Amino acid sequence: MIKSFLGLWILVFGPLFFLLYPSDLNPILSFNNYIEGQRYERIYQGTFTLIESRLDTIPIDTWPDEIEQLSQHFGYALQLLDINQTNLGTLKRDEIEQHQIIFFNEEPEFLIKKIGNSHFILKIFVDSSEEEKIRRGAEGTVYLLQEQFAATEQEHWPALLRSMANYFPFDLQIASRNQINISQTEQNQLATDSFFWRTNLNDEITFYIRLSDGASFLLANLIPMSSIHPSVIIVLVLVFVLSISAGMFFWTYPLWRDLKNLLAATSRFGSGDLNSRALVYKISTVATLGKAFNHMADRIEQLLKGQRTLTNAIAHDLRTPLYRLRFAFEMLANAKTDREKEKYQQSISKSLEDLDSLINQTMVLSRYSGDSQLLSFAKYHLAQLLDDECSSVVQLYPDIHYQLQIAPEASGKLALIDQIAMKRAISNLFINACKYARTTVVVRLSFVSETDMFVIDVCDDGIGIDESDWERIFLPFEQLDNARSHAASGHGLGLAIVKHIAQWHQGTVCAGRSDLGGARFTFTFPSRT
Q1: Quick one: angle between helices 382-393 and 419-436, nearest 10?
Q2: C-alpha span between 82 and 101 (Å, rounded)
Q3: Same domain, yes or no, for 256 and 171?
Q4: How far apart are CA 309 and CA 317, in angstroms?
Q5: β-strand pairing of 508-513 with 440-448
Q6: Which positions, given as ranges, span the membrane (predicted)?
Q7: Of 250, 307, 423, 446, whose CB has the highest number of CB atoms within 10 Å?
Q8: Low-confidence ranges of the chain (pLDDT < 70)
Q9: Opening angle at CA 301, ends 298 and 306, nearest 5
């Protein structure tokens, strides 16, 4: 369970982390860089050409000043760099030497290109730097604050600060110039914008705004650079991972449980426990597999039980003629007269005939209980086949009055059947009816067009069959313990053979009561034409 869950977890989150983690191997970032680079290179290709043509007309030592003047007319900064002072890799340097425009998806984004055959690289920013964004975002508020303090007398500045605290979420305070150690860079920025800022380790900004008296500064303390703290992002990522992991667990656990139950049931079944079945819930992913296993186990158990019953029944039916043979041989050895010898010889012959009949019937049952691919299906006129078979069998029973009734819709209808198997089924049903009939046997053939089914009814006017035995009579070697079983001899295999032939033809056979007063056997199967 744990191995499966960890394997699935790695399979899901491994590629996800790979796609989300910002690295040079990230395919999403690589694709985005390529698309952005192509776009910017097409946009600024003409710009690079114009600047290069402008620089070609002036001495190379004046290029830095020219670029600085041009930068004032651009929305973003321009820089002139010495190629020997850059940290370009081998691949990038080769591209630069080929005068290609190279895009860098950094903060801020920029393009570079070598100028002619010189050692200079022109760098054009296509996005604002972080400092530029901060400056542009703050200069409007700084202007309003300076105007507000300029319009207020200096002695009222503390009161003004207290009133501003109601609608500014960060700390405001006033400090003198002497309390602040200003660097040269900050002084340059102060001369340009009248304010500068500093950033601490927590990415929080403090603005220093020069006020109208020139000696005081308004300090706006600890303004966050981002609206989302890194810890919040970490918590959200953890919640996302845990939620997906929980969903994966609740999906994996039932699957593992059902597979474990299926494996245990398979092991028990293989060890001989034929009653073992897999407990698999209907909504499970492997419900179909569990159902198939249980169906297979039921079928195997039925086959083994049937085989055991068949073996016991064959042994039982073999025992009777064998006992008669032994007894007849013993008595034949002691017989003194020709009459006695003839009597026991007839007994021996009858026992041998019973053994031969039992063996033949058992072999037929085995054939029709085996591989259905042994059958050879073809189209036949069922009415003609039925008439021929019944006419042949009825000659063995001269005392039986026989009627064949064929419905008009079935008279010329073709049926896809195995001829030998169908003749065997018809013969067994007809012989069974003749054995137990008093005087009359009626065979009817009809066709139900709504279901595309043939129906063969074999009826007799004998003593009939109890309703409780209608299903049992089709079991191999079943002998009914009633007057019908004593009316004729047999091994109880004929109807079992009919049942298997019906199943091979995707049909059914069942027993019932005849309108003649005896038994009725109904053989139903599709025409499949």
Answers
A1: 40
A2: 16
A3: no
A4: 12
A5: unpaired
A6: 232-253
A7: 423
A8: 1-9, 11-15, 17-26, 222, 225-230, 306-321, 324, 354, 357-358, 360-375, 477-492, 529
A9: 125
